[in-house]
Design brief:
With 240 residues, the chain is α+β, with helices and mostly antiparallel strands. It has a single domain (4-238), classed as Bira Bifunctional Protein, Domain 2 (BirA Bifunctional Protein, domain 2), CATH 3.30.930.10. It has 6 helices and 10 strands. It has helices at 13-25, 59-65, 102-120, 186-192, 199-206, 219-238; strands spanning 4-11, 34-40, 44-47, 68-71, 79-81, 84-92, 127-129, 154-156, 159-169, 172-180. The longest helix is centred in the C-terminal third of the chain and has 20 residues, at 219-238.
Length: 240
């Protein structure tokens, strides 16, 4: 199907989330689905509509670390950005591929994400959309996207590569996706998260970043990976 692709460049997390909210509010004016690309202005984290960040973050440490926080217009848990490839997809309710069944909408987008990641990895790997939610490994882990796989996440050898959150209205749906490229450093995570949480171990257990472990790759490598994934995702979505 035909997609309208927009790239709003590098912005603060709150501005990106506001843009997605505005796109969803006006999606009924669009004939074609929208694929929204963007970049994060510095280390960022977004969190689902019903998450209270002070329950999970040391807010003074967040300020000192320069970590930008923003509430998403979708659900789901907390996702750290800059170390991922993030995108948004919006489909109007008038489109033939829109479904009233939310899980069918997840499957539509995440199957394209699976194919994109498979091509990125050379086409020889076996990926799957996980059929059920995984059990939480500890306190607070259920509120972190990369610490607990949920249904239709993209998985490789039992570990999560990509996740998403959605919001559906009578006018269409917004899908906010994230593909893990690198892990934020353990030192950084320990500095901003509340110490009683078990999130670091859960991320190590459940997440498989495409470019390896913690931040070791150069900025150019990450940039190239994002540009490649943009082209792959556009191709795979248009083939749906």
């Amino acid at each position: 199907m035909s997609w309208r692709v927009i790239d709003t460049g590098c912005e603060k997390a709150k501005a990106i989330m506001q843009k997605d909210q505005d796109l969803l509010a006006n999606i009924h004016e669009q004939k074609d689905p929208i694929l929204h690309f963007y970049e994060w202005d510095g280390p960022s984290a977004t969190y689902g509509y019903f998450v209270e960040p002070a329950d999970f973050f040391c807010m003074e440490a967040v300020k000192q670390a320069g970590l930008s926080l923003a509430r998403r217009p979708t659900g789901g848990g907390i996702i750290f950005h800059l170390w991922d490839f993030a995108f948004s997809a919006l489909v109007p309710a008038s489109h033939e591929r829109f479904s009233e069944n939310t899980m069918e909408n997840y499957a539509l987008i995440n199957q394209a994400v699976l194919q994109s990641v498979q091509e990125f990895l050379g086409g020889e790997v076996e990926l799957e959309l996980t059929p059920t939610d995984a059990a939480s490994l500890g306190r607070g882990c259920e509120r972190f996207c990369m610490a607990k796989p949920t249904r239709y996440d993209v998985m490789w050898q039992g570990k999560k590569i990509a996740g998403a959150a959605q919001r559906k209205t009578k006018h269409g749906f917004l899908h906010q996706g994230s593909i893990s490229l690198l892990m934020p450093s353990s030192e950084f995570l320990r500095s901003v998260l509340r110490p009683e949480l078990s999130v670091l171990d859960a991320m190590a257990t459940f997440t498989s970043p495409l470019l390896g472990g913690e931040i070791m790759e150069g900025e150019q490598t990450v940039f190239q990976a994002k540009e490649t994934l943009k082209e792959l995702l556009k191709t795979c979505l248009c083939a749906k």
